[in-house]
Amino acid sequence: MGFKTGIVGLPNVGKSTLFNALTRTAAAQAANFPFCTIEPNVGEVAVPDTRLTKLAEIARSKEVIPARMTFVDIAGLVKGASKGEGLGNQFLANIREVDAIAHVLRCFEDGDVTHVEGRVDPVADAETIETELMLADLESIEKRMQNLVRKIRGGDKEAIQQERLLKQAAAALEDGKPARTVDIAHEDQKAWKMLQLLTSKPVLYVCNVAEDEAAEGNAHSARVAEMAKGEGAASVVISAKIEEEISQLDPDEAEMFLEELGLKEAGLDRMIKAGYALLGLQTYFTAGPKEARAWTIPAGTLAPAAAGVIHGDFEKGFIRAETVAYDDYVSLGGEAGARDAGKLRAEGKSYLVKDGDVLHFLHSG
Questions:
Q1: 230 contact partners, CB below 8 Å, separation of at least 6
Q2: Strand (E) positions, 211-273?
Q3: Under DSSP, is residue 189 helix (H, G, I), strand (E, B) or coil?
Q4: 52, 62, 103, 183: which has the highest count of C-beta atoms within 10 A?
Q5: pLDDT tens-digit readout, 74-120
Q6: Distances (CA, A) of 113 to 13, 14, 18, 108, 313
Q7: Nearest to 360 by CA among 282, 302, 317, 306
């Protein structure tokens, strides 16, 4: 199951530098001019999780396979993108394909790096991009409503539902609010997601600060945090330059480097974790002599669907799941100890998988 987060931002905010560090490659060309990233670059990164290492030790696993998240570096956006300015149309098409948006904002002062608007104001930058996405959504809604007229006249239930949801979205957008602020009923969630509205996607604001401000942030990042709180969004502080340096070091050197800077963990780890939380994702594990592996599922996933992440046949032929909570697995020294202590449970099709569950699936076929 792939989860994609699109990295967006105005030109020259440090977006491609961050992407390079994130994927430990130089695949995205970072340069001091707009539109240096023309094709969206895609990178898969491991989701940091110390629990997996511990499970592998206990199970004596030969291989350790972390969960992964996909990041897409999307071409820089400028004012007027909704009307096709710059690489606007391409930007909007790329962003429709991601599950969440990591919005990189320039929160650093540097006379050598030009700002497309000639000033450093991350809140105004965020509003520029949000406005473009809202305008694009309004245009998309208008076109869709026109296409639904005939079906609605014919009494098509799906078309009637779509029209109702589109009207709800349009009302919010016309009020200057993104579509993600609309309260959608549970039975409408699937149809709502199918609309693929740009402003319905969850947003993580990434405050790119100078190297000496990475630990505490600055006045710019504080304003962004306040804005994010008001929107029900999330924000993290990162120095793209530090992350780029860390990406060139081995793990021990990187740890020492972070300690010297007074940082507990790499900003990228915080960003990945925040992206995970933003998408409402959780992790379950499988552990044995062959491998210890982390699997990503949305919170609220039932056992058969969780099994289906490993292989579709596991879901179709699901019989039961044997499960141990992570803490029990660790404290009791693995599966055998958990079984002896009565902490290994057999669960059926209605079991809601919990974050940290160590699972073994039994299936037919």
A1: none
A2: 234-238
A3: helix
A4: 103
A5: 865 555 544 554 445 566 777 888 889 999 999 988 766 555 556 78
A6: 9, 10, 15, 10, 53
A7: 306
